[in-house]
């Protein structure tokens, strides 16, 4: 047997491995008083945030007096924009568009879209290349025509299709641009939750194994690409009802060694990291449980969005009796699945737009860590609390900054946003 790798060996790359947590199955507290508790690597933590985390872990982990191995503390984490830089679901969505990885007949695909869209123009920021307004219902019709053309041409071929075979196809160029704009318009008109649910539904017709393979391919592709804004255009040769249009999206996916180290130290301290994310559960589990990616979390501690299944094929409906993990739904999942712990989360670490309710639902949680990024109005009060508590001796809300141009954290609470050069606080 090969000797286990040190947890210090994690690197930004698929070959950087971490050892399996030494105490993931620990059942008794460490009684030797002269054994120091494990500490977080310095890496690129904001010093005050790292110190606050270490203090809470040392006070409540199994190196502390009063630790009860039968009521293990737990910490709740978002996944997107938190444990990683980027968004797993959007990365998969973009990959599926570029490779036309959709299996449903056109009429069934139609039901995955908001086909009852308004006859009124989209919000002012959505115009075609001629500066004309875009009608939502006409955009849907154009998308369906593109889909029918692509399905007729490529439907018999194994999926996902090679990118090079599709890159010059006007129907593919139009389809991906219109679908990306559709998603952005859905978010603008109906909010983040509706847009996220729409992304999840697009996986209908795939087997669980299909989605696992697609997610892995999308992850590996995105990890090897530069972080940048990318513009997709529908060609003039395929104007449709809406006319040629363009859409700009962000291409970004990076591993975060600081979070991998934190997960390891939590488990060595007898504290369970629990993921609760708005992305598809199986897509996140590939990342979160893998030694290849460096996170090594337990599968039973990964909670995400779920679709109903029939013979391992995803349907377009969400799993019954399981909340969608957004807002109050995310909180409900923690209440239900962590009820046996009989205690609130020890730590909440949030970066997704869906965590405002979670942060307010557990006032007894000692520490809430927030990724400093541009977020929705629901998250702003918590970000402002973190700013106000900077420099205090026992903050409950703390910030972690990052450089979105490199995909790395910064040893400070301020972040450098994509395309900018100056660090900024909320």
TrEMBL record:
The protein, known as: Lipoprotein pyruvate-formate lyase
One Gene Ontology term of the molecular function aspect: lyase activity
Keyword Signal on entry: yes
Signal sequence coordinates: 1-26
Domain of life, source organism: Bacteria
Membrane-traversing stretches: none
Alphabetic keyword roster: Lipoprotein, Lyase, Pyruvate, Signal
């Amino acid at each position: 047997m090969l000797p286990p790798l040190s947890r210090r060996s994690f690197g930004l790359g698929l070959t950087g491995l971490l050892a399996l947590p030494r105490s993931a199955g620990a059942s008794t507290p460490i009684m030797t008083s002269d054994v120091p508790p494990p500490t977080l690597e310095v890496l690129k933590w904001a010093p005050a945030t790292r110190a606050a985390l270490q203090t809470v872990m040392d006070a409540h982990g199994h190196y502390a007096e009063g630790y009860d191995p039968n009521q293990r503390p737990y910490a709740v984490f978002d996944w997107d924009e938190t444990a990683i830089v980027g968004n797993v679901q959007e990365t998969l969505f973009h990959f599926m568009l570029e490779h036309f990885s959709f299996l449903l007949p056109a009429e069934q695909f139609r039901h995955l879209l908001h086909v009852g869209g308004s006859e009124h123009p989209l919000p002012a920021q959505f115009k075609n290349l001629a500066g004309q307004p875009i009608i939502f219902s006409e955009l849907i019709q154009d998308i369906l025509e593109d889909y029918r053309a692509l399905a007729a041409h490529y439907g018999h071929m194994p999926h996902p299709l090679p990118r090079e075979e599709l890159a010059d196809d006007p129907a593919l160029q139009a389809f991906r641009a219109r679908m990306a704009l559709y998603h952005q318009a859905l978010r603008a008109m109906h909010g983040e939750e509706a847009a996220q649910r729409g992304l999840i539904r697009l996986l209908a017709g795939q087997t669980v194994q299909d989605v696992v393979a697609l997610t892995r391919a999308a992850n590996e592709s995105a990890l090897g690409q530069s972080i940048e804004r990318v513009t997709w255009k529908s060609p003039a040769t395929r104007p449709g009802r809406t006319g040629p249009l363009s859409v700009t999206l962000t291409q970004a996916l990076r591993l975060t060694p600081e979070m991998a180290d934190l997960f390891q130290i939590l488990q060595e301290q007898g504290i369970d990291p629990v993921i609760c994310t708005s992305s598809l559960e199986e897509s996140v589990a590939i990342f979160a449980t893998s030694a290849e990616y460096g996170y090594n979390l337990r599968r039973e501690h990964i909670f995400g969005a779920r679709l109903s299944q029939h013979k391992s094929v995803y349907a377009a409906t969400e799993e019954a009796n399981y909340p969608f993990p957004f807002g109050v739904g995310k909180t409900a999942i923690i209440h239900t699945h962590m009820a046996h712990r009989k205690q609130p989360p020890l730590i909440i670490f949030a970066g997704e737009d869906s965590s405002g309710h979670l942060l307010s639902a557990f006032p007894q949680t000692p520490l809430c860590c927030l990724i400093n990024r541009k977020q929705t109005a629901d998250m702003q009060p918590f970000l402002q609390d973190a700013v106000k508590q900077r420099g205090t001796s026992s903050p409950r809300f703390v910030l972690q900054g990052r450089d979105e141009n490199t995909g790395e954290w910064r040893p400070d609470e301020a972040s450098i946003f994509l395309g900018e050069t100056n660090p900024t606080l909320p």
